[in-house]
Design a protein that fits this description.
Length: about 260
């Protein structure tokens, strides 16, 4: 169904913020627990518990994203090293020193959704991995600054892509951010790679709410699907990083809703 881009009132944005605040708090709790020996499923359990405590509902659990045929069976996406996004958390996947662990998480409360992702370095990581993390985080921060009324989506995408180039890393093709609010995935699609820009640009307007989520890898733009049907990995096996914020475009400029 084509619904177009939703515009949210100040009151609605405050509701989206409520969901986003829970997301931020849960990710904070999760990050503190990411250590060698912990499993991906442990992360899933912590996220579920911390969400319940706060009266929220995990947004991804049993949710069927528009890009999938079946519902997602977990609350978190835990993507480790060469896993880029939508990593299905597994009981036998043990986190080790040197790993890059991305946790993507969403909450729904009072009918509104929030979505955010962080990448956590486990102990000492390599110099290339440090550069990758820095580039991805910087791309997110710079992209947020582009989320202003009157600006164009293509300029935000260009900022993300150019930051990857500056750091000598690769912006993953075909995956990216999205409008968000009443549903987790709304229009518009917010690519990370210039090649994914369609002919039709989008002019940002007050009241739009978007999830911006750069995903970069050390070696390639290309991905493959794992046999679990969900986990997306880099085609060359190189590590990837992912950071995401939900951002409202307001009169006062970009408002990052998933920050504590
Ligand atoms: N933040 C993820 C995204 O925007 C949400 C994944 S939904 C899931 O792609 F159902 F696949 F988990
Ligand atoms: Co998202």
């Amino acid at each position: 169904m084509k619904r177009g881009i939703e515009l949210y009132s100040f009151k609605e944005i405050e509701k989206i913020r409520k969901a986003c605040q829970i997301v931020a708090e849960v990710l904070h709790a999760v990050a503190e627990n990411i250590k060698p020996g912990v499993t991906a499923w442990d992360i899933e359990m912590i996220a579920r518990e911390e969400t319940k405590k706060r009266g929220g509902k995990p947004a991804f659990l049993n949710y069927k994203p528009p890009f999938a045929q079946v519902s997602y069976p977990a609350a978190t996406c835990v993507s480790i090293n060469d896993e880029v996004v939508h990593g299905l958390p597994k009981k036998d996947r043990i986190i080790r020193e040197g790993d890059l662990v991305s946790v993507d998480f969403g909450v729904i409360i009072d009918g509104y959704a929030g979505d955010s992702a962080i990448t956590v370095a486990v102990g000492e990581i390599g110099e290339d991995e440090k550069r990758l993390m820095k580039a991805t985080k910087m791309a997110l921060d710079r992209a947020v600054e582009q989320a202003v009324a009157g600006n164009w989506l293509s300029r935000l995408v260009d900022t993300i892509h150019a930051t990857a180039e500056e750091f000598g890393v690769y912006p993953i093709l075909r995956y990216g951010g999205h409008g968000i609010g009443k549903r987790v995935h709304e229009e518009p699609f917010v690519p990370n790679n210039r090649k994914d820009l369609s002919g039709k640009d989008v002019k940002f307007r007050q009241g739009m709410v978007i999830a911006i989520e750069p995903m970069f890898s050390l070696g390639t733009e290309e991905t493959i699907h794992d046999s679990d049907g969900w986990t997306v990995k880099t085609r060359d096996g190189s590590p990837a990083a992912h950071f995401e914020h939900t951002v409202a475009i307001t009169k006062k400029g970009p408002m990052v809703l998933t920050e504590i």
